[in-house]
Amino acid sequence: MSDRHFVKYTFLKVDPAWRRLDAAERAQHKREFLAACEDFGADHLLQSFSLVGTRGDVDLMLVAESENLDRIHEFHVVLGQSGLMKWAAQPYSFLGLRKGSEYSDEQRLVPRAFRGRYLFVYPFVKTRAWYALDAKERWRIMQDHIAVGREYPQVDNHTTYSFGLDDQEFVVAFDTDDAGAFLDLVQRLRTTEASAWTLRDTPSFTCLRVSAERALGALDGEPVPALDPLAS
Amino acid sequence: MSDRHFVKYTFLKVDPAWRRLDAAERAQHKREFLAACEDFGADHLLQSFSLVGTRGDVDLMLVAESENLDRIHEFHVVLGQSGLMKWAAQPYSFLGLRKGSEYSDEQRLVPRAFRGRYLFVYPFVKTRAWYALDAKERWRIMQDHIAVGREYPQVDNHTTYSFGLDDQEFVVAFDTDDAGAFLDLVQRLRTTEASAWTLRDTPSFTCLRVSAERALGALDGEPVPALDPLAS
Amino acid sequence: MSDRHFVKYTFLKVDPAWRRLDAAERAQHKREFLAACEDFGADHLLQSFSLVGTRGDVDLMLVAESENLDRIHEFHVVLGQSGLMKWAAQPYSFLGLRKGSEYSDEQRLVPRAFRGRYLFVYPFVKTRAWYALDAKERWRIMQDHIAVGREYPQVDNHTTYSFGLDDQEFVVAFDTDDAGAFLDLVQRLRTTEASAWTLRDTPSFTCLRVSAERALGALDGEPVPALDPLAS
Amino acid sequence: MSDRHFVKYTFLKVDPAWRRLDAAERAQHKREFLAACEDFGADHLLQSFSLVGTRGDVDLMLVAESENLDRIHEFHVVLGQSGLMKWAAQPYSFLGLRKGSEYSDEQRLVPRAFRGRYLFVYPFVKTRAWYALDAKERWRIMQDHIAVGREYPQVDNHTTYSFGLDDQEFVVAFDTDDAGAFLDLVQRLRTTEASAWTLRDTPSFTCLRVSAERALGALDGEPVPALDPLAS
Amino acid sequence: MSDRHFVKYTFLKVDPAWRRLDAAERAQHKREFLAACEDFGADHLLQSFSLVGTRGDVDLMLVAESENLDRIHEFHVVLGQSGLMKWAAQPYSFLGLRKGSEYSDEQRLVPRAFRGRYLFVYPFVKTRAWYALDAKERWRIMQDHIAVGREYPQVDNHTTYSFGLDDQEFVVAFDTDDAGAFLDLVQRLRTTEASAWTLRDTPSFTCLRVSAERALGALDGEPVPALDPLAS
Fold it and tell me: In terms of pTM, does the model score above 0.90?
C-alpha cells in the first residue's frame, strides 16, 4: 500500500495589506511563490486555482500530489520562504490519500490531473449510522448514487480519503467545464437514498483552474513578471 | 442550459483603520472602487446596498450578475485593485445560479434587478429528510408556502441556486419598500408545513438599496468626489 | 402598519490600542461620538449602556429607536464619522421591529424607554416544531409563561420582532433594578412548558444603564470633557 | 435577596506583541494592573490564577466577588486603565450570582475563597428536557450525583448561577490540591443518571492559584517590581 | 495516584509577519526557543513535531510530559520568554493525564515516547448515552474495537485522559511509520459498534516527528544556528 499518493489542498488568503506594498515588492513575492511551485511541479502533480470572485475567504488554492507526506511538507517549507507567504493565511487545508472505493471499480489510485475549467471541492463526513449498516446494504445504496453521477459524464469525480489524517473523512472534488451541470447533479443527488447519510459537506469551494501565473496575477491585477530561468 | 446566469453577492467590511486615512486618500479609494463597478455595470446587472446601521459585520454589499463565472472573477480582480479593497475583508459571499423552480411557474431565468428600497437576503438549506420525500409530496407542501407569499404582493422573491457551488443550497432574496410587511410574511411562513423542513436560514441581511456612490459615501460620511468621466 | 418603530441594538468593542492614544485624542473621539448621539437623541429615543465588567467582548451598547430604517442608517453613518468608531468593532448587532404579541394584550407598539438600572438582552429563536402547533395550543402554553413573568413585577419586558430582518426571531430585553430577581425569574421560566420550545437564547448580555457620557468614560476611566454647545 | 453576591470570572490573553515592549514598560504595566487588583482586593474577595501552560487561549484569570454589579463594573473600569489591559483581550468572561441549591443543603451564599492549588472552572447548561422533569424527580437524580461528589472530599465545589445574566446557566468551579482526583471524579460522574441531562460543560479551564504578582510574572517570566506603597 | 504524569500538547502558529524579520533576529528567536526546550527536555520527555504542509492553522507542536502541572506551567513560562513566542499564537492546546484504561490491560501509566515518523492526534468525546450503558456492556463493545486495533501492530496508541481538565474527555494519539495503514485502521474502526458512541473526534492533526531544530527550521526554511553550549 506504500505507493498510494497523498493529495494536499492548500487554500490561501492574502492579507489586504499586501496589496498596499509597492509593485516591485509584490512582483518579487509572486516570482518567489512561482519558483517554489515550479520546483515542486517539475516532478510532481501541482495545479493552481483562483477563487477571486467565487469565495470571500480564499484567494488562491494549490493541489499538490506526492508519494509521501515528507515531500509535501518540504514543498510547503519552500513555499513558506516566498515573500507572498509572509502575508498569507491558510484558512482551509485538506489532506487526502488516494484509495480505491469499496463501492466502485473506478480506478482512483493513479495520479490524475484536473482537466475541467472549474473545480468544486468540499470536505465530506458521513453519519456514524451509515457505518453501522451492513456492507452489502451500503453497497446497494451507493449504486443509485453512482448511477446518477454517470448521467453527467461531463462532470468528473476525484475523491480522496482523509480518515484520521484530517478533520473530514473524504475530500470530494469534481471538475467540469459546465458549472451549471455540476449544480444540477448535486441537486439531483439530494434525492438519492445515500444523501440521507451525509453529516457534513461544507464549506464548498468553486475554483477556477488557471496557471499559477494567472492565479498570482489575480491577487493584485498585475501579471507576474518573468524570472529569467522561469519565463513562461 | 449554458445561458443561465450567475448571481454573486459580495459583502464587504471596511477596516476601521481605513477611516483614519486622510480624506483625499479615502476619496481616491472610493473613486477606484466606483470605477470598477461602473466598468462591470456598463454591460451587466450590478446593484449596490448599504448595511451601515442594519448589521455590525458588513458595511456594503454588491450583487453582480453575469453569463459566466469568468466574468464575475474578472470583475472581482479589477475591484481588488481599488484602494478600498486594500482595506476591506469579505465576511460573507454567496454564489448562486438562476434556475427555474420545480414548485412554481414563476420565471426566474431572466436577469431581473431588485426594485424595492430594501433587500433581505439569507442562505438557505433544507433538511435531508425533505429531499427523501416524494416529489409530489414536496410539490403539495410548497403550494401552501407559495400561496402565503402571494398574499404579500409588495414583497418580491429572487431566489437563486447554489447546490455544490457554495455552502448553501439557495440564496433567498426578497425586495420590498415595506420592511414591516416582509417581517410579517416571514413570521406567517413559520407556521406553514414547509417551514418544518428548514435546516438553516441565517445569517439574514437587511440591506438598503442605494447607488454605489451612496453606499461608498456611507462608509465615512463623505460623498464620493466625481471622476471626470464618471461624474454622476 | 407603517408607523411601527424599529429598535436597533448596537454593541461596540473598542480596540485595546485605542487606550494607548494620548488623552486629548481620546477625549476628542468621545466628544464626537457623544455629539452623534445627542444629534439623534434630540428627536428619537436613544439609550446608552456599559458592559465593562459584565462581558469580555463588548464595552458599550446603544439602543436607538426610529420610525424607519433610513433614519437608523443615517445615525450610524454619522456615528461612524466619530473618532471612536475608527477604533471600534461591532461584535453584535440586533435589529428589531415593534409588533403586538399574539399571546398578550400588552401594548408594545409605543416607543418606551428602559427605566431599570440593568438591562438584560438576548436574541431568541423558537424551534420549528413550536410553529407547527395549533395557534390555540401555542396560546395556552404561553399563558403559563406570561403568568410566571407577572410574579416579578419589578422586571419589565421589552420584546421586539426580527423575523427575516436579522438572525434571530425576537430580541428579548428586560430591565429591572434587581438583577437577582431577574435571574430568579429566568430560572423559574425554565420549568414552564413554553421553555421546551426554545432553540436559542444566547448570547445573553448584562448591561448597566448609564448616560452616554458615563459609558464613554468607562472606556478609559476618564470623564468626557464638555464640548461647549453640548456641555451636560 | 439583595445581599447575594456576584462572582465575576475574567479571563485575559495578552497580545504576544506586549512581550516585545521594553522591560521597564512591561514592569510599569504590571504594577498598574496590580494596583487595580489591590485596590479592589482591599475590601472584596479577589483571587488570581495563571493558565500559562494549561490553555493556549488564556494567560491569566481573575475571580472578583462583590455585593453588586456596579462595584464589579467599577473594578473593571479601573483595571482597564492599567497599561497591561491596553494589550489584553478577554476571550472568556463568566458572570455568576451566589444562590442556594434546590438539591443540597450546602451553604453557598457566603463569599468563600478558593483554597486548593488548582481551580477547574466551566460554564454549564442543562437540556430543556431536564427542566420538564418533576421537581422531585430532579431532586432524586441529583442525590446520586451529590453522593459521588462526597466520595472526593479533597475536591471542593463552588457553583454560582448565571440564568439570564450570561450565556450559561451555571458557572461550575472546583478547587483541589489533587488534579488527578478531580479528573477521576469527573470521569465517575459521567456514569451518573444526572450526566445524561448535560447540554454543555465546555470550555473547561485548568487554573493554577497564585498571587496576582506571580500570575503577572508568568506573562513574561519577570517578577513584578514593587511599587513603594504596594510592596508585598 | 500522585505519580500519574501529565502530558501537554502545545500547538503553535507563527505570525506570517515573523518571517519578515531579518534572518539574524529569527535565528536568535529560534535559539531561545530551543534553549527552553533543551532545558525542560534535560529531565523530562519532550518531543517536537512539524505540521508545515499537513495543516493550515498550526506550524509546530510540542508534547511535554511531567510529574505535575506546575512543572508544565514553568516550562511554558520559560518558553514564553523566547523571541519566537512573542510572534506565536497557540490555536490548540490539549492537557491530558496518564491513566489506565478500564477496557484494556495495556500499560499506559509509564512515560513513553512516540517512536513513529508520524503522529496523529485528536481530542475525543463520547456521547453521554455511552456512559449510561452498563460497565460490562461498555467493556464488551470495546473489545471488538481493541481487536481491530491489534490487526495494525505498526500503529501504536498513546491515549491520555482529560475529563474536567480540558475541553475533551481523551487526547487520542497514534504514532506509526505508515500513514496509509493508520488511515486504513481509522476507516475500519468506523464500522465497529463502538464507533456509534463517538460525539467528537476532530480536529485531527497529522504531525511529522522531527527534532526541535528541524521543526524550527521548517518555519522559515533556515537551519537553527548553534548556540555554543547547546550545539547539537
Answer: yes
